[in-house]
Design a protein that fits this description.
With 124 residues, the protein is mainly α. It has a domain at 81-124. The protein has five helices and no strands. It is flat and about 60 Å long.
Length: 124
């Protein structure tokens, strides 16, 4: 009987998906002759995603970070995900260079706003 197959780590998955992390836009070659400048209408700035004041990694051990968050009035909550959903969340965090905290905060903020409630920035 063969031993059970080991699940790949996030690093191994990232290496497997490295080709999908290539830049989306490829640079266009420079034209041989530069075109004259063209006036371009600029759209008003779009609100960027809400970035919530989390304590960056590397600013102390986990206990220190927890204490800093508690002192600033933060509350911890958790929920259950299927293994596949958890795997996808971690992989997307790795691919986008964002923390799962940041991704989940954006998702919760979107849910609050769609429900007609104040967003996370308004509740800080």
């Amino acid at each position: 009987m063969a031993p059970p197959k080991k699940k790949p780590s996030l690093v191994e998955m990232a290496e497997q998906h490295a080709s999908s992390l290539a830049p989306i836009v490829t640079p266009t070659p420079e034209p041989e002759q530069a075109a004259p400048p063209v006036a371009v209408a600029v759209a008003p700035p779009v609100a960027s995603p809400v970035r919530h004041p989390i304590i960056a990694r590397g600013q102390g051990d986990d206990a220190t970070v927890r204490e800093q968050r508690k002192a600033s009035g933060w509350k911890q909550t958790s929920f259950w995900l299927s293994g596949k959903a958890h795997h996808q969340l971690k992989l997307m965090a790795l691919e986008t260079g964002r923390s799962t905290q940041d991704i989940m905060s954006d998702a919760l903020n979107d849910f609050f706003v769609k429900s007609g409630r104040p967003g996370l920035a308004d509740l800080s």
